[in-house]
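[retry 2/3] DUF4143 domain-containing protein: previous attempt timed out, resubmitting with same input.
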Amino acid sequence: MPRNYVSTLASDDLSRVDGIKRDPEKVSRLLHSLARTMEQATADKTLIRDMTADASSTPLSAETVGDYLQALEKVFVIERIPTWVPNIKSSLRVNKKPKYHFVAPSLPAAILGASSAKLVGDLNTFGFLFESLCMRDLLVYAEAMDANVFFYRDKEGLEVDAIIEASDGAWAGIEVKLGHNQADAAAANLLKLKKKIASAGGRQPSFLAVVEGIGSLAFQRDDGVLVVPVRTLGA
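[retry 2/3] DUF4143 domain-containing protein: success.
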């Protein structure tokens, strides 16, 4: 079913959404590019390169790519996740490029042809699909709380998968990892962000958490970071 939908989307739906004719081949290539770089901030030049991979393709402008992306948002295929910019006066240099999140992980899986058998041998793609699944849930829970979801990435290379910020400025940092063996590195990343914000005089997080794909019980580490198995995320 997702594969049929992706095919229909490229050939018909994206042009019908606002009556503007769009090249089905370029739509397909854009979807594949977004799936290949899912849950990552992707430069316009990367999308342009992927959409014009054929030597005979007409060069595209960033504005044209932006139009295709907006159309995908209108039909609820992707959602733009902005970079979190802490509300502090500091020298923190934040990368403001957004990332594009597929509203359902079944879509990038279908686009990439990622069957269960293939994913067993490709844990990197499996990990990004798991992150997409968790981001979907975090967006739903945040909306119910009248909060917003961002991600963090600064010029020094520090990245955090999700930042949930409430309307009063309270915030939480969340890293998503498929396996428990990645929890230490994820917690260290979160604590590094906490220290950066503190050094800049910013508000401390309400909590820091690592959401992981295994386990059935949530717990708090000695460093204060929560470890939350995905099955307990909405509990």
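[retry 2/3] DUF4143 domain-containing protein: The mean pLDDT is 89.
[retry 2/3] clearing retry counter.
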